[in-house]
Amino acid sequence: MAKSKYEYVKFFEKDDSLLKNTWMVVRIDGRGFHKFTAAHSFQKPNDPRGLSLMNRAAQEVMLQVHDIILGYGESDEYSFVLSKKTSLYNRRESKICSTVVSLFTANYLFYWKEYFPDLPLQYPPCFDGRIVLYPSDENLRDYLSWRQADCHINNLYNTCFWTIVQSGKTETEAEAELRGTVSSQKNELLFTKYGINYSTLPAMYRRGSVLVRDKIDVHTTNSSGKEVTRKKSAILILHDDIIGNAFWKERKHLLMS
């Protein structure tokens, strides 16, 4: 390509290459999602359609960005972990972050009708994003543990809050009833007053969603009419505990990526 006298403007671009040999986490969050969910009549405290749509958008992101080894989502946020060895876009922060956020948003919009067939979008959703680097495996696990603990704390509170409101009390009364309570008291309130055993609620609500790459068996028929089984790469949606060690022992390859 011929050069022009205007090419000097490239030197004004910022070098935003990220430190090598560190875990890279792209975290996206819904912007103004309280208003968005209200405008679209999301079920409270959890709307399985909305959470499933978030998971679908995240799956599509991982299918297109192969350097992502794990995703974790709860509520209106998703965290994507990229391998320490990734050289995607020469580790340029702006390119990686903008790609993940735009892919996620595009797929959220694209698959909306599949999960909300009778509910047209009133206005487009918006997600923001950031990248944080974690130098050690322990730091990365602590980050993911923090997000899953946050999921539990928020969901327990929201389950109590909306159960009280749906029983006929005002939001102000619900806030007052929960003020100063600890987890054990919230669990007791749900069970004794409303007959809800929190531990039996769907794991997706209590633990969030973990996306990992794995091989699954696919059964097909060959040209001779014989059934054959082959392995196919897939993005699995799990609702496992990622704070304890069992998940990481079973998938040692993740921290070796």
Automatic annotation (TrEMBL):
Entry superkingdom: Eukaryota
Start and end residues of each tRNAHis guanylyltransferase catalytic domain: 6-135
UniProt cofactor(s): Mg(2+)
Residues engaged in binding GTP: 29-34, 75-76
UniProt binding sites for Mg(2+) 2: 29, 76
Chain positions recorded as Mg(2+) 1 binding sites: 29-30, 76
Keyword Cell inner membrane attached: no
GO BP of this protein: tRNA modification
InterPro entries assigned to the protein according to its UniProt record, in alphabetical order: Thg1_C_dom (IPR025845), tRNAHis_GuaTrfase_cat (IPR024956), tRNAHis_GuaTrfase_Thg1 (IPR007537), tRNAHis_GuaTrfase_Thg1_sf (IPR038469)
UniProt-recorded Gene Ontology molecular function terms: GTP binding; magnesium ion binding; tRNA guanylyltransferase activity
Catalytic activity: a 5'-end ribonucleotide-tRNA(His) + GTP + ATP + H2O = a 5'-end phospho-guanosine-ribonucleotide-tRNA(His) + AMP + 2 diphosphate + H(+)
Cofactor binding comment, as recorded: Binds 2 magnesium ions per subunit.
Thg1 C-terminal domain mapped to chain residues: 138-243
Enzyme class name: transferase
EC number: 2.7.7.79
Keywords: GTP-binding, Magnesium, Metal-binding, Nucleotide-binding, Nucleotidyltransferase, Transferase, tRNA processing
Keyword Coiled coil: no
Reported function: Adds a GMP to the 5'-end of tRNA(His) after transcription and RNase P cleavage.
Family note: Belongs to the tRNA(His) guanylyltransferase family.
UniProt name for this protein: tRNA(His) guanylyltransferase
